[in-house]
Each structure stands twice: as structure tokens, then as C-alpha cells.
Design brief:
The protein has about 475 residues and is an all-alpha fold. The chain has 25 helices and no strands.
Length: about 475
């Protein structure tokens, strides 16, 4: 049996370095990802960003012109792990030599733990040469110390301004890396429509951690905005997945963080999508008035993509569950108008988009709750027609449309068609049976337990099938395999 390499193994590091280098990432960006992904100290991360062994790094230190340092693999390892136990503090000359062979400023191979452990005498020299430690640098730049020369104050002031300008221009993330992050967000949002929720949750979480680490660094304001936008969509995606896996409390937390990112970025489209996500979580948590408030808040930003139609649909969904037929119809009318007003493509797509079939699915469910069974069947059939015309479509949307058709058939006095309508849903693998789908199936089973069809043999058999199907769902399997579930 082949043993799988542990995370952070040489094969993992080589694969990550190759992937990021192919994407055009700078060495500094690769080092940041090494630190975040494998929890490395900064000097170790820079070495692995280059792909060097400890001995190869030692040889480069020993051969460095102008530096009388002799190093071996053991010493490099101790420098990397400092200030941990059984390590050795690198001298200032050692730090300068390491930065030289890595091709980076000295401050890039130091973190907060290093600054806390360095002697004050070393810190004074570093402040003079490189600027403040990271925790202070995020607040304001410190000009290079210049001995006052009252005969030449103009040149002194110019030197200070140049030092500040150099700090402002510095960044821990490049434009190519920002583009790649956004491309990865789009890919995850698209894959979630057809992929495995648990596997995608892990990938989204790792990308979110990387973006969070970059936000905590230093970059120009517009790059910070771009990072907050990506972080907001990622937290929104994690909220959506958490909700679908049955953990509404975790979903609510992710939604609040996504909203904070949206506020920090000032991005209207992101605000609208986060409001939509929070409306969805509130709806499934039974907080229907709050779901309506979130939907209306998102619509107030007048987004240009399809989210306007989705927000109106979500408001109709909540009104229908409250039994407010007039408000439901009014919201569905606004959804139709919003569809006509769509101005350009959605920024992200995938789960952050509302194609026609998704809108019709919402409309069918809303009609169903206010007793308009004929309208529900019409909308459901239209949704299925749109889904069949697509090469790839969301299994969650398709499942809910089939369940809506089954409930509408039951409500309109056609129970004999229920099992045929449900056959595509019953064939779904357990990993696709997400919480909203299983809840809809449970609702159908409860409806079948009342009325004149409740005691029929066919109905009893169908209810047993539905119960077994729900019992073998993704949220249940996740709960059985983990004490905590995804966060």
C-alpha cells in the first residue's frame, strides 16, 4: 500500500512552487503561500520558494562575495527555526546574507516573533536600514533616519519623502497573483454547482486563508480592495456551503465576515451577493422577516448583474412561507423586471449567478406555498426545459424543481405521478443530497402523511422510500464522520 505524502512534503512543496511559478507568481508570493499553506517560518518559506535544500542554501551563504560567513545545513536549519527551542539566533550579518541569497529585503525573512526576540541593539540597526517591524509598518512608514543638517534642510525633507514613497509603492502581492486569486474564486463558484460540497469547502477555505494572510500584509489601497473583494466572495461561498451542509450557525458567521469584507471594499455587486447569501441562510434558519430584510438591503445597491432577480426571488420565497400571497406575487413581479434590467455579466458566476432556470425554480416554490399549484407546475416545467438545454447544470436546482413538481402534483390531486416526478432525485448519490434538498423531501413526506391519500399502500411505500433517502444524505454522513463538521 503506497503511503500518501504528508502535507508539506517535498512533493507538495514542489507541486505548489511549480503551480505558482507557472501562473506567473513572484518569489515573494510563492514564499507567502508556503508560509500560509505549510505553516513555515519566513526564512524556511523563502528557501522552499527557491526550491533549495538546507545544504544548497549554506553553500550559497559561504560563497557570497563580501561576507565572511561559513555555514552548513545544520546551522541554516537552526536559523530558520529560531526563536524556537534548540535553535540559534541569526546575527545581523547572517540575516543580511540570507536576504542577499534569497533576493529579498531583510524584513521579508522576519516576522513578529523574530522582532520580539531580537535584541534592542539589533532592532535599532534594522529600523535604520529597513524600516519598522511588520506590526508597526501596517500603521505608518518610518522615514530613514537622517542626521539633521540645518544648512540643507531641503535635501533632508526630500530624503524623508523618498523613503515614504518607497514604502507606499511596496506590496506583498502582484497584479498577476490578484488575477489568479479571482480566477480561482470564479472556478470554485462554478464547480460548486456540480461538484462535491465537502471537497470544495476545503479548497475554498485554503484559498480564503491565503487571501486573509495577504490582506494582513502591505499593499497599495486598490490592491487591498481587490483582496477584500476576493475574501468577501470566498466567505460568501463558505457560508453557502456551510448552509447546504446543515450548519446554519457556521454559515451565519461566514456571512457576517463576508459582509465586513464587502463593506471594507465598498463593492456594490459584492454587497448585493453577500446580502443574497445571508438572506438564504436566514430563510433556512426560519428567520423569514430577516431574510426579507437582507434581500431588500441587497436590492438597494442596484446591482447590474442577475443578483437583482435572485434577491427579489428570495424575498418572494420568504413572503410565501409567511403565507402572504399578495407580497409574494409583487416580489415575483419585481424579479421579472430585474431580469429585464440585467446590465452585463455577473462578476463571478456559478453559485453567484441567477440564470433563468434558477429564477423559475424560486417562482415555482413560491407559487407552491401560496397554493397556486398550476402556476407552480408551469414554472417548474419551464425550469426543467432551461436546464435540459444547458450542457452542465446545478444538480441542487434540478432536484428542487423535481420536488416542487411532486408537491404540486400532490396538491392538485395527482398523487399517482409523485414517484415518477421524484425518480431523478431518488437516483442522486448521497454526497449530493444537501440539506435544502433533504428538507424539501421531508416536507413532501409530511404532506403525504395527511389527507385522503395518507393511508394508501402506495403512499406508505413512498414515504418509506423518502425516509431512507433522507437518512443517507450528505449532512448526515458528514455529522457521522466528524464531531464538529466544517467551520
Amino acid at each position: 500500500m503506497t503511503t500518501r505524502p504528508r502535507p508539506g512534503s517535498k512533493s507538495d512543496r514542489d507541486a505548489l512552487r511549480h503551480e505558482l511559478a507557472t501562473a506567473g507568481c513572484a518569489l515573494s508570493e510563492i514564499a507567502v503561500e508556503m508560509r500560509v499553506r505549510f505553516r513555515m517560518r519566513p526564512r524556511e518559506a523563502w528557501r522552499h520558494a527557491h526550491g533549495w535544500t538546507l545544504q544548497e542554501t549554506a553553500d550559497r551563504i559561504s560563497d557570497l562575495p563580501g561576507h565572511a560567513l561559513a555555514a552548513d545545513a545544520s546551522l541554516i536549519s537552526k536559523w530558520e527555526k529560531w526563536p524556537g527551542p534548540s535553535t540559534r539566533r541569526p546575527s545581523l550579518s547572517a540575516l543580511v546574507a540570507l536576504a542577499a541569497v534569497f533576493g529579498c529585503p531583510v524584513e521579508d525573512i522576519l516576522d513578529v516573533d523574530d522582532y520580539r526576540a531580537l535584541p534592542e541593539s539589533d532592532l535599532r540597526v534594522l529600523r535604520h536600514q529597513t524600516g519598522p517591524p511588520p506590526a508597526e509598518a501596517a500603521q505608518r512608514p518610518v522615514p530613514i533616519e537622517v542626521v539633521p543638517d540645518h544648512r540643507n534642510d531641503v535635501l533632508v525633507a526630500a530624503t524623508e519623502s523618498a523613503a515614504w514613497a518607497q514604502w507606499v509603492e511596496s506590496t506583498n502581492v502582484g497584479e498577476i497573483a490578484l488575477e489568479q486569486i479571482l480566477a480561482d474564486v470564479r472556478s470554485l463558484a462554478g464547480e460548486y454547482l456540480t461538484g462535491d460540497a465537502v471537497e470544495l469547502f476545503g479548497r475554498a477555505r485554503r484559498l480564503r486563508d491565503r487571501v486573509f494572510a495577504l490582506v494582513e500584509g502591505h499593499q497599495p489601497p486598490q490592491q487591498s480592495v481587490d483582496l477584500y473583494v476576493s475574501a468577501g466572495y470566498l466567505c460568501g461561498l463558505l457560508a453557502w456551503i456551510s448552509s447546504d451542509l446543515g450548519n446554519l450557525r457556521a454559515a451565519d458567521t461566514q456571512g457576517r465576515t463576508a459582509w465586513l469584507c464587502a463593506e471594507m471594499s465598498g463593492h456594490a455587486e459584492l454587497r448585493a451577493w453577500v446580502a443574497s447569501t445571508r438572506s438564504k441562510v436566514a430563510f433556512w434558519d426560519g428567520r423569514l422577516r430577516e431574510a426579507i430584510q437582507h434581500a431588500r438591503r441587497g436590492a438597494a445597491y442596484h446591482p447590474r448583474g442577475t443578483v437583482g432577480a435572485l434577491l427579489a426571488c428570495q424575498e418572494a420565497d420568504a413572503w410565501s412561507k409567511l403565507g402572504a400571497a399578495d407580497e409574494t406575487q409583487a416580489a415575483l413581479h419585481r424579479a421579472a423586471l430585474a431580469r429585464e434590467d440585467v446590465d452585463g455579466p455577473d462578476d463571478i458566476g456559478g453559485i453567484f449567478s441567477c440564470p433563468a432556470a434558477r429564477q423559475e425554480n424560486y417562482a415555482a416554490g413560491a407559487h407552491l406555498r401560496i397554493g397556486s399549484f398550476a402556476d407552480a407546475l408551469t414554472e417548474a416545467d419551464a425550469a426543467l426545459e432551461h436546464l435540459r438545454a444547458q450542457p452542465v447544470h446545478a444538480y441542487g436546482t434540478e432536484a428542487q424543481v423535481h420536488i416542487t413538481r411532486a408537491i404540486a402534483l400532490l396538491g392538485s390531486g395527482q398523487p399517482e405521478g409523485i414517484m415518477a416526478a421524484l425518480s431523478p432525485v431518488l437516483a442522486m448519490p448521497p454526497e449530493q443530497r444537501l440539506d435544502p434538498i433533504t428538507q424539501r423531501m421531508q416536507d413532501l413526506a409530511q404532506l403525504m402523511a395527511v389527507g385522503r391519500v395518507a393511508t394508501g399502500s402506495a403512499t406508505l411505500a413512498a414515504r418509506r422510500v423518502l425516509s431512507d433517502w433522507c437518512h443517507d444524505s450528505a449532512p448526515r454522513q458528514l455529522a457521522l464522520s466528524s464531531d464538529t463538521g466544517p467551520h
